[in-house]
Specification:
It contains 14 helices and 14 strands. The chain is an alpha/beta fold. Helix 2 runs antiparallel to helix 11 and helix 4 packs parallel to helix 5. It binds pyridoxal-5'-phosphate. The site of pyridoxal-5'-phosphate has 14 residues, from helix 4.
Amino acid sequence: MSTSTRPQFKFLHEALEDLKAKHLYFRLKILEGEQKPLANFDGKEVINLSSNNYLGLTTHPKLRRAAIDATRKFGVGSGAVRTIAGTMKMHMDLEEQIAGFKQVEACVVFQSGFAANAGTVSAILSKDDLIVSDELNHASIIDGARLSKATIKVFKHKDIADCERILKETQDWNAKKLLITDGVFSMDGDIANLPALCDLAERYNCIMMVDDAHSSGVLGSRGRGTIDHLGCHGRVDIQVGTLSKAIGSIGGYVCGSHDLIEFLYQRARPFLFSTSHPPSVTATCQAAFALLDSEAGDRLVKKLWSNTKFFKRKLKKLGFDTGKSETPITPIMVGDAEKAFQFSRELFSEGVFVVALGFPTVPEGKARLRTIVTATHKRSDLERALEIIERVGKKLGIV
Ligand SMILES: *Cc1c(COP(=O)(O)O)cnc(C)c1O
């Protein structure tokens, strides 16, 4: 008897059937070959508008070389958690390199951006504390907040007045307070109002934390992120970033003061209880930051933005609603979830891979497609994608 039919697992089967009935069930799309602008998913060559590979670094020759060289020289694994025997010299070097790039005192690298957020929020706050969080913050922030057992108060998306209302109401709390936001929001592609949030954090004595997963390598000088882009250096206590998106590999990091990083070395649970990156990953990230902080990196970021502006302008001209996007994340708003999924399916069969997002990833009634262009898309790829999006969009009555 297969496990799925065991009576104690009947609830799983029912839950899956329920998801299918509500059109919320998704199938994994299988990539064969490399993660690139033209890629083979499910055996079909498509224009790929669904990755977070902003600068095309997943297949960059310098990064590939760095990974291979590090594997030859240092092997395939670190063999332990950082706090026992798994801190290699290269781990320390990468942290120092990222701190320099972000212009802060210190940095700690985690196994993923998810671990960085969840590990940090849960380490620095406890049950008597307060977390004030934008309603569209990433799931890893929400999970970290829940793990901390602190009180969580959520303000309306980017609504500074609503955020201040919460801070006023809790002014007398004798608690540590964390004000936390994504730098760029992953479903809408809009940018946080950081200067105003920093003002509030200063006025109400909050620790200010920003998750720059979608902005590092994208916004600011040479991709330093939203803090650089919006002139907020020195005003954000905790900056989180990922090594899994623009950087092209895997991992996450936290930047801040020496004390913050020392404390996370002592207390962040993913740091203490989960093995560190293999040499290939660390060397890849070192090569990525070196590239980013060079003329070649600068050119890639500029190419990303010229592709973004081109694609966004054309989509708008065709009559699509791109929501509040200000970054390479450009949604195409549809509304009805079933229609969004149909749009995505038909685009795929015409040769364009754009993911559809419905509840609970985005609010109910706000289903959409989400496009992400990269620096390595050719203009001709984007033009062809736009033609197909226009044709299918018209057929489905979206424009
Ligand atoms: C992707 C993402 C993360 C998680 O990063 P990983 O390195 O993929 O674990 C965290 N925060 C935000 C806003 C993200 O978009």
